[in-house]
Design a protein that fits this description.
Layout: H1 3-16, H2 22-34, H3 38-43, H4 51-65, H5 70-74, E1 76-79, E2 82-85, H6 98-108, E3 115-119, H7 125-133, E4 138-143, H8 146-158, E5 165-169, E6 183-188, H9 195-198, H10 203-206, H11 222-230, E7 235-244, H12 250-256, E8 262-269, E9 275-282
Parallel strand pairs: 3-4, 3-6, 4-5, 6-7
Antiparallel strand pairs: 1-2, 7-9, 8-9
Length: 283
Amino acid sequence: MTISKIIKQATEILKKGGVAEPRREAALLLCFSLKKNRTYLIANSEIELSAAEISKYFSLIERRAKREPFQHITGVQEFYGLEFIVSPDVLIPRPETELIVEHGLKILQDLEEPTFCEVGAGSGCISVSLLRNDPTAAATALDISAKALQIAAANAENHGVASRLKLIESDIFSSIEDSGQIFDLIVSNPPYISRDDFEKLQTEVRDFDPRSALTDEADGYSIIGSIAANAPNFLKQGGYLLMEIGFGQSAVVSKLFNNDRWREFKVLPDLQNIPRMVKIQKR
């Protein structure tokens, strides 16, 4: 079978499986399988592949047709211009979460040797991206999952920031409550999907991303509320919290920060103009 015929056949398999962009993903998976780029596929569309190459490729196609995420098959995802290792133990980084990095860097850039804390490190994409782009910063990243912290450690090592990143297994702030640590910035992409809405997620997310990274198994506000209540204990005066929230949550979330420990509550939109991130300063 030639490359063009193989892609055509794979496209039909992915289409039947309900994959949104079947031809694009068929081509990208062949690039991954062959360790070639798209230009190679176009220039060599009539070249025949070996039986071993075809078998390997269609095993990947079958996995994707069952809606296993593309990123789990390849093992990587790009985020803020960097490549991150991912696995079923961590949430696949999303482009909208880059908003936290963008605004975090603006806060850190005017500080001398700034420190920040990430609640819910996952793959480490937020912390590692901040550290890569601010060589003067140091961070502590917390996650309840030991397996997620292993992925974060690997990503920190790959991007040369491991010496500035302390990784701690912790349920929100529980493991650092008695440490006396305070930070210039706290960042978080917490589980904010309600238990009911979790069931409505697309298959790739609902069945393959870690459930604990997506939903609080309640109304979607319990972990956000805990962070809002406890973050001031770990922030310097004038320090900031940046936290991702879900669609339609801003009105309720604003009430969780309605106390005298916070000021200048803002909800910032993502590139699609969806309210996406809370930015708030400690008094």
